[in-house]
Amino acid sequence: MTAPRRFDVVNGGQPEPPYPDDTRSRGWKFELDLERIVDSDTWQVAPPDLRPWLLMLWAMSWRCTPTGALPGDDYLIAARIGMPLTMFQTYRETLLRGWIRHSDGKLYHETITERVVSMLAMRAGEKKRQADYRAKKQRDTPSVTDGHGEVTRDKRVNTTPEPEPVPRTLDALPPDGGRVVGADAPPTPKAAKVHDDCPPCPHDAIVAAYHEELPTCPKVLEWNERRKSYLRGRWRAKWSEKRFGDQAGGIDYFRRYMKHVAKSRFLTGQAPAQPGRKVFVANLEWLLRPENWTKVIEGSFHDPA
Fold first, then answer.
1. Domain that holds residue 29
2. Which segment, 61-70, 160-169, 199-208, is predicted with the most confidence on average?
């Protein structure tokens, strides 16, 4: 799937829509990342009695077409969330903080757009997995020649029915709202065959590397199933991308990732505290979340050179 265009300004001064205008959620549930919401500037500046309306606005956008977009009309937005129009217009600046009008006349929010992009990537990944499975099954089925010299597939061989597609909806995400995309998804019995050649994820060795390379970051005191799924997801994703060839190479790859993190004052809690806010320090779970991993790799949290 072609990477969706994000908030690029085009001729006319408005960005292009980040994905097709017929994008629908089709039953994929929208989960609120409460930790991210509470830490957001929009939540902080909103009066307490207005915050439930923010949640309603964000959740309602998931049901619109395209998914995650709001109509560019105050009356329609107010009607969809059940708020009096005069009240909406009074608090419009706060309610629509971060929403940007695009060239299609609709409003998009970058955080919600990330969710939609993840959903589309998961759908594309599942479609590719099913296609690969069918192609492999066809290759593994012996060919025979019928009485007329035509080459056909022997339908008596390997008659095991194709397994049902593994559902990959947002219901399967960790309860804190982290996004698990494609190879990052926690394995299921039916999907395990995709990673038959992937070496086992050495959880203990990578946790130890984290402690050695990032001594100022919080210690891992409990390695529960949710955290295991994040690490397992990143391990399998990087294996699929051929970032390493065996288990030892994988441990070395993750150790280099920790060394890269150690160069960030912000991630290691060495950046100056902002007024009214405590110093941020990344823990291992945060570093392994898919939405954070790419930003860390790209140096988004590092001081300019």
1. 1-140+162-185
2. 199-208
